[in-house]
Design a protein that fits this description.
about 100 residues; mainly alpha; elongated
């Protein structure tokens, strides 16, 4: 029993140190810069304009009966997912953080 107490304390210290690392790993700055560029492209003015045109065109096709509602709804849901991705991931991370 006396031997397990220091072992348990050591394991808790290692687990705490592993959870405390919140900075990016060394050498990851080019990858992070590339992903920031992709995120800026997907959420920037070009993407917003493309989404508006897609929703407008889909709405027109649905209005004239050339496309069914299920396929039209897919375009709208896709836009919500793309532009809400940051909020969705933040929600998932907060849920995962609360499971410790």
């Amino acid at each position: 029993m006396k031997r397990t107490l220091p072992l348990a304390a050591a394991l808790l210290a290692v687990a705490g140190a592993a959870n405390a690392q919140t900075s990016d790993p060394a050498g990851s700055s080019p990858l992070i810069a590339a992903l920031d560029w992709v995120q800026g492209t997907l959420l920037g003015n070009l993407a917003t304009t493309a989404a508006v045109i897609a929703v407008a065109a889909t709405g027109f096709l649905m209005l004239t009966g050339r496309i069914d509602w299920r396929r039209g709804l897919t375009v709208v849901v896709g836009c919500f997912i793309i532009f809400g991705a940051v909020s969705i991931v933040a929600g998932i991370r907060s849920l995962a953080g609360g499971l410790h």
